[in-house]
Write a sequence for this structure.
């Protein structure tokens, strides 16, 4: 038998997702944790591990309003056997589940809560105040460190646009391809009650939407929103007796290509998914042909395309044509980002794909449930394609 | 002599000792990169040490100023005072290897092509500081 459960996700908590202020990140985190523990049928005293991933709004908060390792005290969690903040940008969510499963397998602890929360949209503040590089401009110790800002490179939209343009130039990828991803995501989101954007989107509306940073239109870029997601990770054995069907982790991997930013490297068009995927697929004893559903980190439409290439669903450079025919959409051959992804549902870094994977693996997707959901590929993507975490999850404890 | 253009881009940068050679070089019409004294590897201006051998002995060294457009974007929603949108941001792969973020001057966005040859030009900001930009060759 290939693929044995390395641990299981037994609880999932998703707060309301909103572009309105709902309180600082610890408030949102506490709500997600409360929901996740209840979902698993556990009590708070059953939790003996806490891994915290603070979104960018933590930079805006102080003391009790900042999500950190110290949030343990606000949560009233005492005598934890494992407790840490984890910081690997957008790739953190998959990594938290990996470290939790490994710690449980090693005997450090039994039930770990992994939580992400963000409250970037504060009254009177734009998303740019949390995500834009301009926030560093006034406090930089060395002007050379903010040289990019001087040229007008102020945030992630432009940086990913630069990567996407490189892919277009090398491989002929087009806005029609990017648009196909945006439209597909929205089709899924119309069926997701958690999703913020549920109005159907046409390819014409995609092309007509305003430019943000060429080649990106508005609908190429993720939203930013406030909210939190938490999961409870435990052993496969303990998960069997809990309230929800276990979601087993059969494979895991990481890939951190970094970016040396010099010739001849092509990091703008190659991600850590290649390395992370190799490890995870080998561990699970499966191949891309076995995957029923992809839940991918899709901060931009381009990210979905390049990630699919690097996992090996198609050849390098073929990602555009691969997604163009509705393959990722409802009814398509490779259902992908079945809750609408970050582009249309909610932006909780790596918790967006992970949370939807848990819902699909349990068969709780309602109208959007994918019938065959035995193997689900989950990605977390951090930095400018610098960091990648992969999980292969399943309702089954092993694959025969 | 390279043309010096006016600009009012904010925020205003103030050179310090660690970065002065970069800005002094620009004022003299030279693109300054950093080069490892131990292994010869070229680095971007932001480097603190050599990424190949980890030596801290990286020296400010004049580069040829020639390069190619590795990628570019046209920004329509800007956050920088003094930069009127739309404007371009380019990654330029210098002849020496390091890729640096810059802007292409004197070219319409629809004429920019990935791979095109460019060379450094220099623009004086309202603060008096001079920065390297690039123009098509």
């Amino acid at each position: 038998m290939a693929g044995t459960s390395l641990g299981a996700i037994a609880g999932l908590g998703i707060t309301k997702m909103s572009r309105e202020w709902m309180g600082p990140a610890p408030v949102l985190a506490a709500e997600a944790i409360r929901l996740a523990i209840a979902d698993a049928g556990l009590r708070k005293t059953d939790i003996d591990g806490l891994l915290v991933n603070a979104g960018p709004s933590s930079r805006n908060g102080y003391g009790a309003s900042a999500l950190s390792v110290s949030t343990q005290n606000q949560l009233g969690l005492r005598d934890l056997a494992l407790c840490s903040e984890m910081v690997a940008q957008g790739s953190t969510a998959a990594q938290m589940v990996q470290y939790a499963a490994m710690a449980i397998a090693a005997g450090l602890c039994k039930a770990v809560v992994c939580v992400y929360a963000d409250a970037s949209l504060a009254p009177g503040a734009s998303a740019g105040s949390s995500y834009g590089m301009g926030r560093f401009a006034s406090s930089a110790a060395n002007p050379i460190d903010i040289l990019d800002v001087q040229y007008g490179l102020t945030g992630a939209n432009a940086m990913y646009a630069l990567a996407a343009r490189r892919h277009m130039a090398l491989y002929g990828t087009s806005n029609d391809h990017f648009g196909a991803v945006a439209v597909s995501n929205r089709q899924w989101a119309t069926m997701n009650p958690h999703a913020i954007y549920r109005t159907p989107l046409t390819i014409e509306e995609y092309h007509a939407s305003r430019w943000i940073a060429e080649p990106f239109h508005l609908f190429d870029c993720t939203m930013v929103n406030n909210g939190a997601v938490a999961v409870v990770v435990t052993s496969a054995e303990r998960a069997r007796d809990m309230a929800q069907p276990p979601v087993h982790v059969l494979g895991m991997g990481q890939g951190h290509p970094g970016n040396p930013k010099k010739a001849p490297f092509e990091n703008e068009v190659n991600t850590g998914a290649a390395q992370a995927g190799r490890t995870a697929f080998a561990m699970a004893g499966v191949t891309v042909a076995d995957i029923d559903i992809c839940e991918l980190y899709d901060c931009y439409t381009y990210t979905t395309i390049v990630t699919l290439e690097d996992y090996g669903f198609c050849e390098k450079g073929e990602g555009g044509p691969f997604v163009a025919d509705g393959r990722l959409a409802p009814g398509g051959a490779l259902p992908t980002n079945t809750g609408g992804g970050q582009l249309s549902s909610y932006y909780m870094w790596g918790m967006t794909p992970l949370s939807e994977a848990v819902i699909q693996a349990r068969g709780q997707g309602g109208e959007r449930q994918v019938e065959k959901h035995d193997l689900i590929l989950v990605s977390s993507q951090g930095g400018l394609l610098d960091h990648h975490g992969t999980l292969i999850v399943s309702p089954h404890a092993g694959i025969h | 002599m390279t043309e010096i253009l006016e600009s009012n881009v904010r925020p205003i940068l103030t050179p310090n000792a660690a970065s002065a050679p970069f800005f002094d070089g620009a004022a003299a019409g030279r693109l300054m990169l950093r080069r490892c004294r131990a292994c010869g590897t070229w680095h971007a201006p932001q480097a603190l040490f050599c990424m190949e051998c980890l030596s801290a002995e990286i020296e400010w060294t004049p580069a040829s100023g020639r390069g190619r457009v590795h990628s570019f974007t046209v920004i329509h929603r800007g956050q920088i005072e003094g930069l009127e949108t739309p404007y371009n941001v380019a990654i330029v792969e210098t002849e020496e290897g390091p890729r640096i973020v810059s802007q292409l001057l004197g070219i319409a966005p629809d004429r920019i092509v990935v791979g095109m040859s460019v060379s450094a030009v220099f623009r004086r900001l309202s603060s008096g500081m001079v920065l390297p930009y690039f123009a098509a060759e």
